[in-house]
Amino acid sequence: MSSDRDERVVRPTEEDEVAAGGSELIGGPAGRRALPGGWRAAALVIALVMTGMFALGMVQKLPCYNHGWFFGATTQYTHACYSDIPHLFSGRGFDQGLIPYFDRVPQSAGDMDYLEYPVLTGLFMEVAALLTPGGDSLQAREQYNWIANAGLLMVCAVITVICVARVHRRRPWDALPVALAPALALTATINWDLFAVALTAGALLMWSRSRPVAAGVLIGLAGAAKLYPLLLLVPLLVLCLRAGRLRQFLTALAAGAGAWLVVNLPVMLSWSGGGFHIRPGWAKFYTFSQERPVDYGSVWLLISQRTGDPLGNVNTYVAVVMILGTLAIAALALYAPRRPRLAQLAFLTVALFVLANKVYSPQYVLWLVPLAALARPRWRDFLVWQGCEVLYFLGIWYYLAYSGSGDKRQGLPLEGYQLALVLHLLGTLYLCALVVRDILAPHHDVVRLDGSDDPSGGVLDGAPDIVTLPAVRDARPMGEPEDEAVHQWAGSGGTR
């Protein structure tokens, strides 16, 4: 690849008609005489946009901050400003100085006797609790705690977009959709998912720089904050197998396992009766995940509501779908005429988990936003998907308001909620279908229109194929444009 291509930053207005049209709000696309600008300028602008959008998301929670979390069960739903943070500050004993995983939570938590989050998320919550001033009423302390958490989560959001901006050296502006994602702004302070998202984005950045140890460590740490980042090991394994880079995968795997153990073992094990035992507080996240029934947002809830079957064997159904889906993704990666990009397979794998899981909380969209922007950096499709997610975000809260409003029936009835749920499922499947099409027909992949292979692939970028399925024929050398039309498009700077 030429050095000019490595140095020149791709502007979204050069290749995306929606981005070009949207740029008219700020003066239109950059002209030929505009200063080229580099990744630092792009990262600075994207970080500022992310900060602004995050702040708007905080403003959207203002009705709940003032009264909705405290003085009415349905107010936080009718204003769509619910957050777990203030409820769990007192509900899990942080207001009393209890230590997560070691101390039992108050009786008011019902059957939740310990904190039901992975270790690093518990540490995040504990740090925010330590930053929360004491001495005021419980309501004031819950407000302060939400502010402390929001400040830390804003840092995570900025780290996320900067990492995404640096994953593709020439395409920092691919992170702008992440910063502008309305679903991110709306869900950023519902829970603590952005912490794991930031660690995952850092792992992708480290892998793109051919640093498997650092990438593995960050994947392990992210997996100690949320379960989904561990799924990235699946596409890494398949792609490294196809490229003959298993040593780098095993290096990342060992580093990830070591990092996960370092942060989990001190909390996991306790000594009693002359031996080590698994501490029940540490195990709560895993037992809760196993035991929880079908819940909001999942396709299984839709099936259960429509058929009246409680789906008592849902764990088996989820396992079967995940195994079959993972095998299909692996087959796709080995069958494709060109090795898929890491971001494409990572998005499909996490999307499979989102679609197959027995619960879909609104903030789970945060897991997919950075991966979607890297897998398919096309504004139209990203915004279509985001529109579906925003509608689901509103649908779940208005349905909960309807369910809890008694005779007033204020909110969205069951049929309306089911429609919102279907839109969420269809929106995610729509984006998945486009990514699969890009994999099977690489000339549709905007990242590869200039002949690039996998700018975020690190050691995979430009590597020859070693293991493929027999059906693969006539795969072009890495870096070669698909056809003359694509070559002319890449040189013209036109839109497609």
TrEMBL record:
The keyword NADP does not apply. It comes from Streptomyces orinoci. The chain crosses the membrane at residues 39-59, 146-167, 179-207, 213-238, 250-271, 316-335, 342-362, 382-402. The lineage of its organism: Bacteria, Bacillati, Actinomycetota, Actinomycetes, Kitasatosporales. Residues 1-25, 476-496 are annotated as: Disordered. It is found in: Cell membrane. Keywords: Cell membrane, Membrane, Transferase, Transmembrane, Transmembrane helix. This is Glycosyltransferase 87 family protein. InterPro entries: GT87, UCP010361. Pfam families: GT87. It comes from the Bacteria. It is a multi-pass membrane protein. Residues 1-13 have a biased composition (Basic and acidic residues). Belongs to the glycosyltransferase 87 family.
